[in-house]
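#struct-help
A.M.: can someone run this one for me? Single chain, 285 residues.
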Amino acid sequence: MSYIKFLDNDEHLQGSIRMIDEHTVEVKNCNKNLSGFQLFTDAGFMFGDYSKFKYDYEEPISEEKVYRYTNDNHKWVKPMNTVVFSSTVQDSLVGKTTQKAYNYEELEIPSVQQVENYEFVGWEPTIPSSGSITEDKTYVAKFNYNEPIENVRERKISEMNTVQQSMITNGFDIVIDGKLKHFTLTDHDQTSMLGLMSQVQMGIEQIPWHTSDHDEHCEYFTNEQMKSIIEKATGFLTYHITYFRDLRIYINNLSSKEEVEAVEYGIQIPNEYKSDVLKDLESKM
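D.P.: on it. Structure tokens below:
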């Protein structure tokens, strides 16, 4: 154990010291004393002589007593803390974005510029209007992104196109000889059906069908059956292609993001945005 003894006082004080630099020492947990001091072990052996150091500065920290002493008559200057201002949007701040200060009142907070498609919502964390700056701080200007309606429409149309392609690929059902059969319409299937149209027109009675699923056997259909299958496939394709084109026109005429986001594939398109082709197709469904 050790103790601190000030030159003008015989009291043995329990405290702690810390060297700040070669001319400055910090003393904690002792009453303020204007004289220099020395450090002793419990056995009375002096192991630190700071008799030429004089009281210079005091600062309460966490309710502890903290005093600074110097040996060159300089005044210890309390360091300023650094405050950084940044933003989530480039080129939105005007002013000095890195500042040093003791108190918040000394700061010159950068002004926030309006940026297209972005709305400023505040600083994070909130910047105090007064008080001491006790540590380095960073404050970030936060913005909400207001996506342009054109982007929302474009994204929705792309989404609807993906659904349309999936609907076409999944195909359709048709009843053949009292049995429900399913036909997919992949690119391979569509090409195959186009090739079989000539066989139907030639009157061939047994027409083989090769599905795109290689795990399924090929199958014969009569001329009349294949004619019905091709007609159903053609109508199915025509409907979805026509529906999507009209849906795209409808989406591009919507004025609010909420309306665009609410669109789903299969909704009833208002009559003013339906083509005559779609109206005819729907009347026959």
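A.M.: thanks! The first helix runs from residue 149 to 170.
D.P.: also worth noting: The radius of gyration is 42 Å.
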